[in-house]
Amino acid sequence: MEYDVYVQTCPTRLVLDRLADKWAVLVLGKLDDKPVRFNQLKREIDGISQKVLSQVLKKLERDGLVSRSVFATVPVTVEYAITPLGRTLALTVTALTRWAEENIEAVLKAQQKYDRSA
Amino acid sequence: MEYDVYVQTCPTRLVLDRLADKWAVLVLGKLDDKPVRFNQLKREIDGISQKVLSQVLKKLERDGLVSRSVFATVPVTVEYAITPLGRTLALTVTALTRWAEENIEAVLKAQQKYDRSA
DNA sequence: AAATATGGTATCCAATGGAAACTTAGGAGA
DNA sequence: TCTCCTAAGTTTCCATTGGATACCATATTT
Description:
DNA-binding; three-stranded antiparallel β-sheet; mainly alpha; 5 helices; Arc Repressor Mutant, subunit A; homodimer; 3 strands
């Protein structure tokens, strides 16, 4: 393996930067089920702003992880879908959100203990 | 399951925020092998600053994912180790770094294609 | 006396993030 | 015709964050 994320200039750092983004993780998780339109994503990912959703989708599209399809309806319909490459990644990012849901109580308990002792 | 990362106020979002951090992912990956001292981490995680490393370790400790041990040597020795809880998480975050290393070429190709068409 | 090592904090400035307003384009309704 | 509506963004503004750099305490080595 010639790539190593622990080297500053390694291009894999770019990927890590992309994934090390709460919103990208949530978007990929949603698209893993089925293609979704812009405003539908905005509604389903509670708390994301239009600007950030737009930016995240653009970056994910550039990385070849999601595809963007425009339909000439009125008003225009834009649908985002996960690509085959994105699907391989979605496996690991959904593992991440699942871990969060399964272990949040242990984390919260640890935080309380830490805060009490400080 | 009562928790849902897609709800803005769900505490699992806190966990996602923590993991959605390039540096936290790299630190956990390093500590998964063996306990490591502060400056050793700093050397091995190319490009991280002392301030950020210090902050990340403090947050990971608060979340119960790493433990911190101080030894009264001269100069003082501080060793960071992964906890059992952290170890369960390390499985998924190393999957992430592995994905980055295995798929970076596909991502770079997608980016070039995207940039050419724009 | 000066340099070295450890494990940090403090300070400063640039970059990022989110909230809210604005935009574009084509219907639908009055 | 004039106004309103929706989808899918873009722009603007301000607060927070991020990283680079300098600094600190302590003790040994040169």
